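Protein in question kept in full:
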Amino acid sequence: MSPEGSSPPARHRGLRIAAVVGIAMAVIVVGGGIATRASNSKRLQQQTRAQAEPVVTVSLPTPGGSSYTIDLPGRLQAYSRAPIYARVSGYLKDWHVDIGSPVRAGELLAEIEAPDLDQQLAQGKADLLTAQANAALARTTATRWKILFKTNSVSQQDVDAKNGDQAAKEAIAQATAANVDRLKVLEGFKRIVAPFNGTVTARFTDIGALINAGSGAGLELFVVSDTHKLRLYINVPQNYAARIVSGTQAQLTVPERPGRTFTAAVEASARSVDPASGSTLVQLDVDNAAGELFPGAYANVHFDLSLAAANLSVPASALIFDHNGLQVATLGPHNRVIFKPVKVARDLGDSVEIASGLTAEDRIIDSPPDGIGNGDAVRIGPGSTSGGMLAAAPTVVSPPRATP
């Protein structure tokens, strides 16, 4: 053995050991790098899949109100309204009331001059006197012929002829009397009178105006309206018509009485839906003893109605309408989307009340993303309603950098 170093076999063993150690360290380094890269790749894939899932905002439905209000436009009308037309033709002699005048039933409104009618009445009276005289003569003649028949001076045929002539003359007298009575009634129509207590709301004639008899031949002369009580007509949308029944109270306001509120009550309903408007005509009665409301005026009608059952309120943006109808997207187990068909009770603008299809525990997806499907996985994003039913949004971890 050389004193300057170890023997060759010893050096070879040391080199082999060093090589083995180096190879082992290289294997460890390479294996660690491969494992790290695989772990990073897996985490990156998981992160990519998570990022690919839509982020949604989730909330719970809130209880709807126990009552709701609706405001509808309406039109006031007089409880009774009578356009007054002439029954005789002529010229207006005088009028005694103007618009806004209160009148009583039977009060004189105007007078008509009808000389033609006056002459017809005079002729009718003369014809009546003639007919009555002829009837009296025929009666006397028939009586005399009856006496002559008892003495066999005339035949039965002659007596029957005189009796028939008497009956005909008396019938003519009755007809003439009836014609005179008719003309007298028409004479009475020269005086235009109020049909009931009310107010003159229109006058369309003046002194000297030509008057044509009948509603088809001339314009109305006056309009008399009973305004101590008013009728209020509104068109109620079909989905509210069943709630507004006889006796339902309402509050109304009119532009000419700012700050004032008047009470009305539902009196009658048409009980049918107009196909053109999809609404039901409803009549309300309004007490107007003070005369503060005017017929023909516009009114805003306010109803406070109670709900038959409690509804759930959700954002209007949560509704989806497609070929399957109206639906709401909810979040099921494992954050999977479940579509539920619903029925809307009321549309409140930014929110809607759902009558059926949801429960208070359903997690509602607000503004569902386009293309989302039933069973799709989603992530709950920030801004969601907190609660035990809602899972916290997962923490987003940036993908690690690969070890060089």
In short: Residues 89-203 form a domain with the Helix Hairpins fold (CATH 1.10.287.470).
